Amino acid sequence: xxxxxxxxxxxxxxxxxxxxxxxxxxxxxxxxxxxxxxxxxxxxxxxxxxxxxxxxxxxxxxxxxxxxxxxxxxxxxxxxxxxxxxxxxxxxxxxxxxxxxxxxxxxxxxxxxxxxxxxxxxxxxxxxxxxxxxxxxxxxxxxxxxxxxxxxxxxxxxxxxxxxxxxxxxxxxxxxxxxxxxxxxxxxxxxxxxxxxxxxxxxxxxxxxxxxxxxxxxxxxxxxxxxx
Length: 228
Prior knowledge:
Blueprint: E1 4-9, H1 13-24, E2 29-35, H2 38-48, E3 52-56, H3 64-74, E4 79-84, H4 89-98, E5 102-105, H5 110-121, H6 127-133, H7 135-151, H8 163-173, H9 178-185, H10 189-203, H11 208-217
Parallel strand pairs: 1-2, 1-3, 3-4, 4-5
């Protein structure tokens, strides 16, 4: 994999300096720029077109969730990692809707953060793992998706996806990784990746989260809440 460019967004210069120092010691990462508020972040991403954005939620002015939405609209390939003091389910729902790849507590260890950066760079969505690991968050997230399906008119009963692709997408919606999906369906990792690519192409969406929301709104897939 080529060198990963990353934009750091945090209100406090000392925090950014710590991240910059740690990342600069690694040959796999290059700091594309730094911003201290949301408006700067949007402009910087437009200018540098990085691979990743590591950003806190509580920014002055435009907050991290709003910045994420703006970035994903114009740069859908950028992986966004949000840091927050709260793992409230409502914020996680908003983060998923915004296309955020990972939503992490501020007190995360450096090793865990680095692992997440590598995962997101490879196209993974660790935010799904967060949903699975915290049942109270999972209930709010999946409940919100269910309500979205009820509130919005079903545009089409017909699904362009094959039965196998729907299986894969339902497992993606449940937060399963490619490796777990491969084991559950007794197929190879590459086959899972091929199915996901086909799903994104058929639905004309940019990432897994958008595909899940798209399919749930139309009633093509369902995800059980914990305890169902």
